[in-house]
Every structure is written in structure tokens, then in C-alpha cells.
Amino acid sequence: MAELFPAFHKLRGARIVIIGGGDLAARKARLVHGEGADLRIIWPCFAPDLWAEWSERAALIDRPPEAGDFVGAALVFVAIEDEAEARRIGAMARAAGVPTNVVDVPDASDFYTPSIIDRGEVVVAVSTAGAAPVLGRRLRAKVEALLPARVGDLAAFAKSFRASVAAKIAPDGRRAFWERVFDGDIAAAFLSGDEAGAREKMLAAVNAPSKDDARRGVVHIVGAGPGDPELLTLRALRLIQNADVILYDRLVGEEVLALARRDADRVFVGKAKADHAVPQEDIEEMMISLAREGKMVVRLKGGDPFVFGRGGEELETLRAAGVDAHVTPGVTAATGCAASAGLPLTHRNHAQAVTFVTGHAKGDADPDLDWASLAALDQTLVVYMGVGKARAISERLNSSGLDPATPAAVIENGTLPDEKILVGTAASLPDLVCAGGVKGPALLVIGETAAFAAPRAVGFVAEERMTA
Ligand SMILES: C[S@@+](CC[C@H](N)C(=O)[O-])C[C@H]1O[C@@H](n2cnc3c(N)ncnc32)[C@H](O)[C@@H]1O
Q1: Class of domain 218-331
Q2: Using CA atoms in the order 179, 184, 187, 188, what is the torsion angle rounded to 10 degrees?
Q3: Which of 9, 115, 183, 366 has a beta carbon 3.0–4.6 Å from 136's, enabling a disulfide?
Q4: Ligand 1: distance of its center to the CA of 448 in Å?
Q5: pLDDT of 288-321, one tens digit each?
Q6: 334-464 maps to which CATH number?
Q7: Is 62 considered catalytic here?
Q8: What percent of the chain has pLDDT over 90?
Q9: Which residues pair with 246 in a beta bridge?
Q10: Of the candidates 248, 225, 226, which has an alpha carbon nearest to the alpha carbon of residue 412?
Q11: Distance from the CA of 369 to the center of ligand 1, in angstroms?
């Protein structure tokens, strides 16, 4: 969880006190000077440049700061080089109960100054909590490059229609209305410079609202990939960021969930073997009732929702209930883990096919699979949920004709920082699992291509790595 909460201060009428008379103080003044701010700069003597720049736009008070200077201030910046003196003055300001920033002294500050993108109505602030200001500035530059030049004017344009939208469109349709404005031809016309055209279209839209603006619930079944948040699709990212409610599985990590809106509801509905947090029917009912309340629901599943993920059943149920439902694919564990391990699932010289199977079986039974065809040469076999059945899988393949010396790999927590990759043979598969202490989600990969996997073991002593 973040240690900071960003908030935007109103500058109009706010008294901002800057302590300092040199370049540091001038820089802070440039940062906080805004429409209607009551800016006061206090210090016994001012550098000529500061005087020239600020004497007409701020109150310059040439004496040492006093406790009374801070009473009633909205924000204080102590911008002087002498750290001990800065701390002393900072303590005086904080004693007056005013949020204070002592420049370059994080432990004496209540808040940090972010890197800012200022486009009028649109202000973007980036902070690294004082940990890496240069990184903050680089991120700011990247975000800036993504923002259309006229985005601030677009916000002002939207603001000029707020009252008429509120008068004409029912509250439950407003969000959809604005989404249509910003995603559609109105914003496109405005941003391309055709303000008159945009205004005309906007008036037409406000005066004849579309039936689509009535808030309709929707469920998006979304693949979250194998763990690394960088492997999310752009669409998955957008949907996660827009969701009102996220129903997520055990395999979806904190880093992915952290991308959601802070006010979105997150509901854990995950399942572990023999430990069903929420029964499948209840998950489906929950999705249906949330959508009927008009919510934008994201059903977030590890990997791809249509690969051993029950996404198909959920889609069927939602459609049968008349709920608007869509599917967004994700990187499935097999492709994610293979890429991470450097293991090509197909290879011109070693594997002409790839087969995904589940090792899951009811109770203690062995998986019910066509072992003879799985034992065939020239393919890569990937077993999901097979760790608990590694011995049975190894034995059944070997007794069905697979050469026991065929390379095999176990990939646990693939794509994540604690990823473990163990490489051995089809015969040694159960020992790999056992000696490797494999407990997290893992795949078994069997076939010539498994030999390409680069062994990697977190907390596993190198000499103990299993090899053929
Ligand atoms: C219920 S299945 C879900 C598969 C998911 N829908 C997909 O496309 O990857 C869960 C199994 O996927 C595999 N799995 C998921 N994420 C994994 C990861 N990061 N590393 C290794 N295996 C993973 C494991 O075999 C785990 O038991």
C-alpha cells in the first residue's frame, strides 16, 4: 500500500508562506504560485533575482520569520540551505498546525512536492515519496508525452457543460454520457482544434441523450496473466482501472489489484484445492446481481479465463441471465512461464505440437487422460494443476511408451520474483517436485523443449538443483 495520499490544494485565497530569500525559495514560489494565491515570502534579505521576479506578485517581508507568520497559512515551505535552521523554522510552522515542507529534509516535512504537469484544469502530480526524485521527473515526462496538448482546455470545455448535463441527464446515466463524450467524436473534434464543431455535437448530445446512457451493468471476464503485472493486456488494464467491483481469484496478485481505482470494491472469491472460498454458483449469482445493479464488474482470473479457468461456464451463465458479458484474454500460465524460462513450446527441430492438459482429478483418482497420445514424440506437454499427481503422471507416461530420459521441467510461480525452475527428466519429475519443495502454482512441462529451460531456484542451493 502507498504511504502517501495525493490531494490537490485550492490556491485561490490560500495563504502560502515561503521562508527563504534565494534561488531555492524562488523555485518554490514558481511551483505554488497560482490563480488567487496569497503568497508571502519571508526572509531578512532577498537575492536581487528573487526580488525582481516576485516583488510585484507576492508579499515580500524582509525580516526573520516569527511564529505568528504561520497562523492561518494553508501551506509552508522552508526553502533555505542551512539544514539546522530549516529544521528549527519547520518545527515552528508545524507547531502552528500548518502542513510544512522543509526542502530536501524529508523527515522534517509533512508533505512532499511532486513533479507536476500543469495543463490548466488538468493537473497531474507524480511522487516517489522522496525516494527517487529523478525517477519522478522521468515519469512525469512520460505521462506528459501521453497527454494531448489541449487536454486542459478539454476539461474546461466539459466544465462549461456540467450544469446542462446535470439538468438533462439522470444521475445513473451521467457517467456513461461523459464516457461517450471523452471516448467519442466530441472530444476528438475538440482535441483536433474544431471547438465549434465539438460544441455543436455536445449541444445535440445533451439535448437528445442516447438510451445507451442509462446505466447498464456489464461483466468483463478478464485474464490477469500468470502474475507479472507487465503481462496484462492494455484492455485488461483499462477495464481494471474502470471497474466498480473486482471479483478476483487466488492467483491474482496484489500488484495487479493495486491498479484498480481506490474506491472500487475488491471481492476475493478465490479457490484453492479443496478450499472453495466462494462456491462457483455463488460467484455467478454475485456477478449477475451486481450487473443488474448497474455496476461495471470485472471478473479477474489468473492466466487466461478460457484456459482451465471456468470462464466458459461463467460466460454461458451470464448470457443465459441476459447480462451483458465480454471476455478479455490473458497470457496463460504455459506461454508466460515458457517465455520466462526460455523454453520454446514449439520448436522446428524438437516439437511440432503443444498440448495443454489438466492434472486435476476428482479425489485421489489419477487424471483421466489419453496417455498413449500424450506419450507421442515431437510435442511439448504442459500439465496444469499437476504437482500433486506428478508421480502418477510420470509413471503413466513412461508405461505408455515415453522415453524416461525425455527432458522435463517444473516451473513454480512463473514470471514472479520467486519463480523457481527445475529441470530433469520425465522419470525424475516426482523427485523434482518433492526435492524442490514445490508448493505454489506450478506447471509440469515434458518434452525435448524442456531441456531449454534455464534452471532457477529461489532459496534453493545451487548444488541441489536437480538435473538429469
Ligand atoms: C485453475 S488453473 C488456472 C489457469 C489459468 N486460467 C491460466 O490460463 O494460466 C491454475 C493452475 O495454473 C497454473 N499456473 C497459474 N499461474 C501459474 C504461474 N504463475 N506459474 C506456474 N503455474 C501457474 C498452475 O498449474 C495452477 O495450478
Answers
A1: alpha beta
A2: 150
A3: 115
A4: 22
A5: 999 998 888 999 999 999 999 999 999 999 999 9
A6: 3.30.950.10
A7: no
A8: 69
A9: 266, 298
A10: 226
A11: 19
